[in-house]
UniProtKB/TrEMBL annotation:
The keyword Metal-binding does not apply. The keyword Nucleotide-binding applies. This is Ras-related protein Rab-28-like. The gene is 106052758. GO terms for molecular function: GTP binding; GTPase activity. Keywords: Nucleotide-binding. NCBIfam families: small_GTP. Belongs to the small GTPase superfamily. Rab family. It comes from Biomphalaria glabrata. Coiled coil: none annotated. The lineage of its organism: Eukaryota, Metazoa, Spiralia, Lophotrochozoa, Mollusca. Pfam families: Ras.
Length: 226
């Protein structure tokens, strides 16, 4: 990718990653942006913020802003601001933890409340920890029914092994932009270009910083796909 493409992406998308604490949101973001995984759990307070640039079929350069929202923010005063302006939402649960699945309804409703009568962002249901398939407590049909009933795309991923993580983010971006992924893109599940962490000081030891955006800054765009 050239410098000018770096500076001037064709599109910028805001993706937010939400779900219960310990479902693996930060791990997914770290896997996607840095190809790293840590067994240690460090609770996200507020949110972490990542930027990743990808290149979709047809040469569309996309800057993905990924907002990793702490599980403890549900019901808190900042959540609406974090959600506002999202093009896509990843609702993440842990396939071995039933309550993390049950609580998705509340996370979904938080998005619905912010969008009001306007269009919803692209919604994706993400079952994480697929490496722990033998400990799964949420049956496949429950997952599928939730995705169907809420008009969501559906994924199973593992932040630990990296299985389907890049593909998940890539497909969501492609769906939002109505671009088709090429076969090699789908086959490889590849990390297309470079990752860029724009903060520092993350609990997982990587360079990432928790930023708590003031409401006005967070409310920078409308809750629809432009
Ligand atoms: N086996 C396995 N463990 C995982 C996976 N993803 C995350 N974990 C572990 O689950 C724990 C919680 O992961 P985090 O990514 O910190 O969870 P979170 O959703 O960001 O939690 P909050 O910041 O509190 O909202 C950590 O100990 C991770 O190592 C996975 O795919 N497989
Ligand atoms: Mg976290």
């Amino acid at each position: 990718m050239s410098d000018s493409e770096d500076e001037f992406p064709d599109r910028q998308l805001k993706l937010i990653v939400m779900g219960d604490g310990a479902s693996g949101k930060t791990s997914l973001c770290m896997r996607y942006s840095q190809e790293q995984f840590s067994k240690e759990y460090g609770q996200t307070v507020g949110l972490d913020f990542y930027l990743k640039r990808i290149n979709l079929l047809g040469g569309t350069n996309v800057a993905l802003q990924v907002w990793d929202i702490g599980g403890q923010t549900l019901g808190g005063s900042m959540l609406d601001n974090y959600i506002f302006g999202a093009h896509g939402v990843l609702l993440v649960y842990d396939i071995t933890n039933y309550s993390s699945f049950e609580n998705l309804e509340d996370w979904f409703n938080a998005v619905k409340k912010v969008c009001g009568t306007g269009p919803m962002p692209h919604m994706a249901l993400v079952g994480n920890k697929s490496d722990l398939e033998h400990m799964r407590t949420i049956k496949l049909d429950k997952h599928q029914k939730f995705a169907h009933d809420h008009n969501m795309s559906s994924y199973f991923v593992s932040a630990k092994t990296g299985e389907s993580v890049a593909l998940c983010f890539q497909k969501i971006a492609a769906d939002i932009l109505q671009v088709k992924l090429s076969k090699p893109e789908v086959d490889q599940h590849h990390r297309v270009v470079k990752a860029e962490i724009i903060d520092s000081n993350n609990s997982h030891g990587a360079k990432a910083k928790r930023v708590q955006l003031p409401p006005r800054q967070a409310k920078s765009s409308l809750c629809n796909i432009t």
